[in-house]
Amino acid sequence: MTAPVNAELSASLDAARQDYAALLDKKLKLDLTRGKPSAQQVSLADALLALPGDEFKAADGTDTRNYGGQQGLPELRAIFAEALQVPASQLLALGNSSLELMHDAVVFAQMYQLPGGQRRWSNEERIAFLCPVPGYDRHFTICERFGIEMIPVPMTADGPDVAEVERLVAADPGIKGIWCVPKYSNPDGTTYSDETVRRLATMQTAADDFRIFWDNAYAVHHLTDEEVQVGDILAACAEAGNPDRAFIFGSTSKITLAGAGVAFFGSSEANVKWMLHCAAARTIGPDKINHLRHALFLKDYDGVRAHMRKHRELIGPKFDAVLRIFDEQLKDIATWSHPKGGYFITLNVPDGCAKEIVRKAAEAGIALTPAGSTHPYMDDPEDRVIRIAPTFPSLADIEEAIAGVATCVRLVAYQKLTS
Amino acid sequence: MTAPVNAELSASLDAARQDYAALLDKKLKLDLTRGKPSAQQVSLADALLALPGDEFKAADGTDTRNYGGQQGLPELRAIFAEALQVPASQLLALGNSSLELMHDAVVFAQMYQLPGGQRRWSNEERIAFLCPVPGYDRHFTICERFGIEMIPVPMTADGPDVAEVERLVAADPGIKGIWCVPKYSNPDGTTYSDETVRRLATMQTAADDFRIFWDNAYAVHHLTDEEVQVGDILAACAEAGNPDRAFIFGSTSKITLAGAGVAFFGSSEANVKWMLHCAAARTIGPDKINHLRHALFLKDYDGVRAHMRKHRELIGPKFDAVLRIFDEQLKDIATWSHPKGGYFITLNVPDGCAKEIVRKAAEAGIALTPAGSTHPYMDDPEDRVIRIAPTFPSLADIEEAIAGVATCVRLVAYQKLTS
């Protein structure tokens, strides 16, 4: 049985089919899959390539060339303390990837009892994490690898549906964590409201070793003059009498060099001590020369902010182009996020269309993040969310690719509406 | 009851007491605890501090500043393939610490089923590792942290007592690994004989996922013109039909910069694939710029060898001084290793004296690696082995410190012999 089709829809489908045929003829080869900085962006930090130069002593006289210094270079920790809202004394500067630190925190929690916990997670019958959706696929992969059950929670304009979070964590002692990208979230650009931050910090949890994995990946990655602030989760947790609740992660991967940046872990004194104890069996210390290199290059928090304004100059026009093209072409059939920072735009297409749109785009040579990636187990139940990553390609390529994506959206949506 | 004391011993004790009193008066503050390069040694690689300079493209055109490249930079892997006896295609260049890689290999084996295994180690009732003694304390710490039982096996002049190793691994399916420092071993400088390597590769193991943790930390760290070779364990395992048996580790920590070097993992294709699968949930890739920096600096394997000769010029005299002072002062009461490479000298004192000697040295301001550190659970049953790490202090300090250690050995040994 087919639904009645009106003439207007039918004309729209015909137009989309023609546009898609023309798109195929272009034989594009464009990649919008990952949140990767462009060559121009990483070039902004090219001065790092010749640093530290003649210098190898830290401010406290430490020879950065030798072993030791598990906490990382103090002057670099000081620079990022304000950005990540963690006192420098509780902030560790470590390797080149915050994903590593999140992964290892989950691994360590399985191997070593957390502060406040009764046993190691590996000795629990069941471990679950709350996963605000849409969210970041690499968070979900960590859970999936270690058999941690993922419970989706819908994102709202204020962050995860906090009433639902409160209800779940209060009732279920198996829920040990929640993944959060609190500012300019991946993929929809949402910043958690102060109320959300406060309730996450104060809520009752059935688990006594519940942890908020606060992946502040886009802390300084503004796209507007507003420089949006997010509530201070560490302070809020401490005030609420839950000082050990938040693990805070950040990195310079999308500030300086994506492959050769510095990652940070911050938390309560007890959690930092726990992390250092776990790490002591693993390493004699992080690459302090890379820390020194970054400290010399960025200088201070204002230096970080000034550097991020240069990124905005490069990527702002790309985000604007995506939004403009969507606005021109998709107003009647899709919605999308309008991020004030971060690396992504979420495109919400008609239910049941996302997979097919991604497939059609791939056929036209436009690689998109696989539909479903924004959800645990790759399962977007409405098959609706497509993550757009506009930073890496050139502006001209973005324009071409997004026009192509819009064509695919119209084609698939009108096919569905007329079927 | 006291044993009869002859006059000679009594005079020796009196002399040692006087020397120790004079030693205390010097109020020394010297540290021989860790195998740490000196400032002069790390300075040999100061050119790295301004590299890669204007360069950021790898030989294959890859932009090293951006994400990706899980296996590490091909040109750096090629440089270390010969040194570590692993085909470049099976050698990964990763972070700044081989200890991390060993730790993570043990962790991953608990979380992910190894090639050839039937289940993850965490699902086994019991896991044990063979620990040749004397050995490296950080290996033992990894086992201890994860509840892996450690079974000591005595070292011989040819490596671990291989008949004992064969007997143990054939009988006990719980034995999943053995720690090996095959060349210039930590702490006694032994290089495994070809026969030992062959038998480790060919022996029958009750466990089907047994792994040799081949920590080739001193592969190019020669102290003589001989440049000792060790058998190719990976080839030997493959020939014996046990291709997945060996995990090979190495790093440039004691070649270039101790805090900012590059670590390597090499193994069979199946093991490398397994390692990359495990690592893929953890990281988007290692610091390729540090790889490029190292490749530009070291150039090729001959460059590595030439660089190591400069280290030998700096540390050879320190090792010579230790051996000379021991020879002058301890010939009648102790024995010690005569390493042809590596970072340590093992001092074997009379049974039951090591802890007391380390204590006496500490009182005199000379910090030694704690007695027992060379054995699992810090338990040297004969209380006999002291590890001497002569690289970090200046030659003058080494001479002063080792003369002090010799005094402590004589004091404690003669006290024991006359008690």
From TrEMBL, chains A, B:
Record keyword Transferase present = yes
Which InterPro entries does this UniProt record tie to the protein?
AspAT_Ic, PyrdxlP-dep_Trfase, PyrdxlP-dep_Trfase_major, PyrdxlP-dep_Trfase_small
The record's section on Pfam families has: Asp_aminotransf
Key words of the record = Aminotransferase, Transferase
The keyword Transferase belongs to this UniProt entry's keyword annotation: yes
Signal peptide positions (record): none
Q: Name one GO molecular function term.
A: transaminase activity
Domain of life, per UniProt, equals: Bacteria
The record's Gene3D superfamilies line, in alphabetical order, gives: Aspartate Aminotransferase, domain 1, Type I PLP-dependent aspartate aminotransferase-like (Major domain)
Q: Which PANTHER family match?
A: AMINOTRANSFERASE, PUTATIVE-RELATED (PTHR43799), ASPARTATE AMINOTRANSFERASE (PTHR43799:SF1)
**In its UniProt entry, what is this protein called?**
Aminotransferase class I/II-fold pyridoxal phosphate-dependent enzyme
